[in-house]
């Protein structure tokens, strides 16, 4: 399972770097290399501080992400139009899963597995089980509400939203240019926090396997991910994310089995 998780983290890291490049190219008109290089440098600097650096980054990014996501999405929701879209909904393109239930499961397990490298060491540092449970419930509830609101806004903008790689940018563009640029920044910040979480988890695993220090494993990891990211964001997402979703289901089931075995 360690090998599977390492592959999962490395692939996601490459996708996120490619995503940073895509944002700079498609939204800012700058070379993709500028986006990947800037993101790579900031990520390396942040993870050098270990888990504390990752926590600080998320303390800043997550509240802004939630606030701006709600600010952009809520005014764009028209319940009547959403219901009309749902009554006549027909996906414009082939999806990664044959039905909505499996697609939701893939999305859920993908994000759960992605959080393991940070949540596992964080759980060992926070001694209070009550704080861990309350934090998990609060975080999951807030993200669930945000996901619901964003999906309602995207349905309100359907079918135009289906033609965008990052459809929320269409919703933000309809709000105001200022919100659009703010959302672009927050989107990049989300990518950034995902990258540092993956680098932290992958670097720690490689350090344990190779005997090298954690900091010495970071640069080779980032260099390899940078090379893979040259395949392009859309191509990597299309081929890797559905595969990672299925891998994540297996991974989560193994974690649950291990947990039940220990408690049993």
Total helical elements? 10
> How much strand content do the residues show?
under 5%
Strand count, sense and closure of the main sheet? none
**What is the C-alpha radius of gyration, as a whole number of Å?**
19 Å
Amino- and carboxy-terminal Cα gap: 21 Å
What is the SS-derived class? mainly alpha
Helix content: over 70%
**Overall body shape:** globular
| Number of structural units classed as domains | 1
Q: How many strand units? A: 0
Order of helices and strands: HHHHHHHHHH
Low-pLDDT segments: none
Overall pLDDT: 79
Write structural notes for this entry.
The protein has helices at about 1-25, 30-45, 50-75, 80-85, 100-125, 130-155, 170-175, 175-210, 215-230, 235-264. The protein is mostly helical and about 260 residues long. The protein has one domain.
What topology does this entry show?
Layout: H1 2-26, H2 32-47, H3 51-73, H4 79-87, H5 100-125, H6 129-156, H7 168-175, H8 177-210, H9 214-229, H10 233-263
Helix pairs in contact: 1-2, 1-8, 1-9, 1-10, 2-8, 2-9, 3-6, 3-8, 4-6, 5-8, 5-10, 7-8, 8-9
Provide a short characterization of the protein structure.
This protein has ten helices and no strands.
């Amino acid at each position: 399972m360690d090998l599977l998780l390492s592959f999962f983290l490395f692939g996601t890291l490459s996708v996120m770097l490619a995503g940073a490049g895509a944002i700079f190219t498609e939204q800012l008109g700058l070379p993709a290399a500028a986006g990947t290089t800037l993101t790579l440098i900031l990520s390396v600097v942040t993870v050098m501080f270990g888990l504390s650096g990752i926590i600080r980054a998320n303390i800043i990014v997550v509240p802004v992400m939630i606030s701006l996501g709600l600010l952009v999405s809520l005014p764009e929701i028209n319940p009547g139009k959403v219901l009309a879209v749902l009554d006549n909904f027909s996906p414009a393109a082939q999806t990664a899963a044959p039905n909505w239930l499996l697609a939701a499961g893939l999305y859920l397990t993908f994000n759960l597995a992605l959080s393991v490298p940070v949540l596992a060491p964080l759980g060992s540092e926070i001694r209070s089980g009550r704080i861990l449970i309350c934090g998990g419930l609060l975080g999951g509830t807030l993200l669930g509400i945000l996901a619901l609101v964003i999906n309602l806004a995207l349905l309100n903008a359907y079918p135009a939203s289906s033609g965008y790689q990052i459809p929320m940018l269409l919703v933000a563009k309809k709000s105001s240019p200022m919100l659009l640029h703010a959302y672009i920044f927050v989107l990049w910040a989300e990518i950034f926090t995902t990258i540092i979480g993956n680098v932290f988890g992958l670097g720690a695993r490689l350090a344990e396997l190779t005997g090298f220090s954690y900091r010495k494993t970071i640069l080779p990891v980032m260099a390899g991910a940078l090379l893979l990211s040259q395949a392009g964001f859309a191509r990597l997402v299309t081929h890797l994310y559905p595969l990672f979703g299925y891998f994540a289901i297996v991974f989560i089931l193994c974690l649950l089995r291990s947990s039940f075995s220990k408690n049993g």
